[in-house]
Design a protein that fits this description.
Order of helices and strands: HEHHEHEHEHEHEHEEHHHEEHEEEH
CATH architecture of the largest domain: 3-Layer(aba) Sandwich
Distance between the termini: 57 Å
Largest sheet: 7 strands, mixed
Oligomer: single chain
Shape: globular
Helix content: 25-40%
Number of domains: 2
Number of strands: 13
CATH superfamily of the largest domain: Type I PLP-dependent aspartate aminotransferase-like (Major domain)
Strand order of the largest sheet: 2-8-7-6-5-3-4
Length: 349
């Protein structure tokens, strides 16, 4: 007898892996990371917290939740924090999904949506993106049926960078049945220039079935630390907190979250985000001038169309590691420091 996994586990294990032992090019523009490490106020808080690593962190993450809630102007009971927003989107699937129900998401988009639904036992309904790389909201709405219990909205969408404005999100929510949990994944919200950063937060008071997910991985350079948060109706946030893994947010990460929402760290993050946005706009102009086909982005990356293998080879020749999406007809490249972006542009000219 051989131990048998669930079919969804076999599917995940069959996913292709990168070649073992391969040395990546030195300019890492493949994972949408910020090119800077944590700011000094965050590093100071993390260092101080490390001295108490022999103690368990706050099980309820109260201080960190309060810091997030105050930044959004909402009650602390409406916030859940976990080990990255990826853990939260899995937790949300577990709250409402089981065999016989369905989850909807656009595709291509963040791979974790499909994984979360599969592990929760739900059926998966992917919906094609609009031509501009943003979510096709009418198609998403049409895909929601009697068995649907959750819909994931990635905005801006990863890996394409397409964006849907708040009024289109509001119109969508008005049509979605109240028993469908709508997860608005705003991992890249800080890079949006099409509307104010907080434009979607008012939706939380209008729709009890809405959850907004955000992360500190991008804006504050904490991808390696893992800290994300959810804002939702108190009932949903409490359910997330009660069903999360105990102490999943470690003490150093909690200290980083609290510091990240302080005025000094926020000011530093704003300066860094402004650099990335400026560089994104510079790259878009250069690509247009060079006749390169790409999708305009509201995020910290660009999606370039072309033969994925050839593009990856051209990037590698300039020392750039990008991310290949052959099924989507191109490559995603993160916006980094000016000299890094120059190398990426050299590969595409």
């Amino acid at each position: 007898m051989v131990l048998e996994f669930r079919s969804v586990i076999d599917e995940m294990l069959a996913a292709p892996n990168r070649p073992a032992g391969a040395t990546p090019p030195p300019i890492r523009l493949s994972q949408n990371e910020m090119p800077w490490g944590p700011s000094e106020p965050i590093l100071h808080a993390m260092s101080a917290a490390a001295r108490s690593a022999h103690r368990y962190p706050d099980y309820h993450r109260t201080a960190a939740r309060t810091a997030v809630a105050q930044s959004m102007g909402i009650d602390t009971e409406r916030i859940a924090i976990d080990n990255g927003s990826g853990s939260l989107l899995h937790g949300l699937a577990r709250l409402v999904c089981e065999p016989g129900v369905d989850g909807v998401y656009c595709w291509p988009s963040f791979e974790a949506y499909s994984a979360a639904l599969g592990l929760a036992g739900a059926e998966r309904t992917p919906v094609d993106l609009a031509e501009d790389g943003a979510m096709d909201m009418p198609a998403m709405l049409a895909a929601i049926g009697p068995a649907t219990r959750i819909a994931y909205l990635c905005n801006p969408n990863n890996p394409t960078g397409g964006f849907v404005g708040v009024e289109a999100i509001r119109s969508f929510l008005r049509e979605v049945p109240a028993n469908v949990l709508v997860v608005l994944d705003e991992a890249y919200r800080e890079f949006v220039t099409a509307e104010p950063f907080d434009a979607t937060e008012a939706l939380l008071d209008e729709f009890d079935n809405l959850v907004i997910l955000r992360t500190l991985s991008k804006s504050h350079g904490l991808a390696g630390l893992r800290a994300g948060y959810a804002a939702a109706a108190p009932r949903v946030a409490e359910a997330l907190r009660r069903t999360s893994v105990g102490f999943a947010l470690n003490g150093i990460a909690e200290a980083a979250v609290i510091a990240a929402f302080g005025s000094e760290a926020q000011a530093i993050a704003a300066e860094r985000i402004a650099v990335i946005v400026s560089e994104r706009e510079r790259m878009e102009v250069a690509l247009r001038d060079a006749g390169v086909s790409f999708l305009p982005s509201q995020s910290n990356f660009l999606f370039v169309y072309g033969d994925a293998l050839q593009l990856m080879e051209r990037f590698a020749a300039q020392g750039v590691l990008a991310r290949s999406f052959p099924a989507s007809g191109g490559v995603r490249v993160t916006v980094g420091l000016p000299e890094e972006n120059d190398a990426a542009l050299a590969a595409l000219r």
